[in-house]
Every structure is written in structure tokens, then in C-alpha cells.
Amino acid sequence: MKEISPEELYSLYKDTLYKCQSKIFNYADDIVETMVFEDFVIGATSFLHDDSLNTLINNHLIDKKQYDLSREIRALFFEIEDCGELTMDCLRGQSEKWKYLTSLVDEAVAGVKNEVVLLD
Q1: What is the pLDDT of residues 40-77, one digit of tens each?
Q2: Residue 115, Cβ neighbours under 10 Å: how many?
Q3: Distance in angstroms (rounded) separating the CA atoms of residues 48 and 52
Q4: CA dist 43 to 19, 49, 53, 89, 93, Å?
Q5: Cβ neighbours of residue 50 under 8 Å, at least 6 residues apart?
Q6: What is the b/e burial string over 71-85, where b = at least 16 CB atoms within 10 angstroms of the residue's CB?
Q7: Burial class (CB in 10 A: 0-12, 13-18, 19+), 113
């Protein structure tokens, strides 16, 4: 398996964040389901993992604030999954955990370098 460069990892990191920002509520359920329940799950598992974040911070692609915020996002997402709120009803109903998660993601998206907005 080919190792990805820090720059490629950063691109995947940003893409992961874009999949769960508050703008997702503007999209149809099938799109949201793919973005959150497929793409974000994979991204949170891989690209918000401590190993990935350490690579990004060690290569000066994210700062300490972004690192800490990303760890908090990942932990909260898996807490949502563990408590059974990883559903469209909870997401659309914007449970308190989902509201907080999307606000954290919005903050993280605002902190990315070379921002390329995938969602309008």
C-alpha cells in the first residue's frame, strides 16, 4: 500500500470536515446519508485519528488549536455513534450532540488553510 504524503493527508482531512459541516442540512436525505453515515464515518476513523493528526501537526499543516478541535470532533462523533444517535432522525432533529458536533466542525472548517469549499 502506498503511503500518502502529508499534503494528501491534509486534503483528505479537509474533505472529511466538509462532509459534516452545518451546511449539510441544506441537502436531501440521501446526500446527507452518504456524506455523514458513509464518508464522514470513514474520514473520522482515518483522517481525524491521532496518527493522522500527529502527521499534520508535525508537518505544520494544522496548529495545536486545530489538532485539539479535531480530536474533540472525533470523540464526540463516536460518542454519538455509541449512544445510538447516528441516525437521520437524530441528525435532522438536531439533537444537542449533533448541534454541538456541527458547530465544532464549522469552527474547524473555518480554521483550514487553502480552504476549498465543497458545499455551497
Answers
A1: 999 999 999 999 999 999 999 999 999 999 999 999 99
A2: 11
A3: 6
A4: 9, 9, 12, 22, 23
A5: 71
A6: ebbbebbeebeeeeb
A7: exposed
Q: Is the pTM for the entire model greater than 0.85?
A: yes
Mean pLDDT, range 78-99, rounded to an integer: 91
C-alpha cell belonging to residue 26:
441544506
Decide if 16 contacts 40 (C-beta within 8 A). yes
Sign of the torsion formed by the C-alpha atoms of 47, 51, 53 and 56: negative
Residues, the chain, total? 120
Q: Taking residues 9-23, what's their average pLDDT? A: 95
Say yes or no to pLDDT of 116 above 70.
no
Selection from 33, 8, 41, 40 nearest residue 109 by Cα: 40
Report how far residue 11's alpha carbon sits from residue 6's, in angstroms, rounded to the nearest whole number. 9
* pLDDT band with cut points at 50, 70 and 90 for residue 119: very low
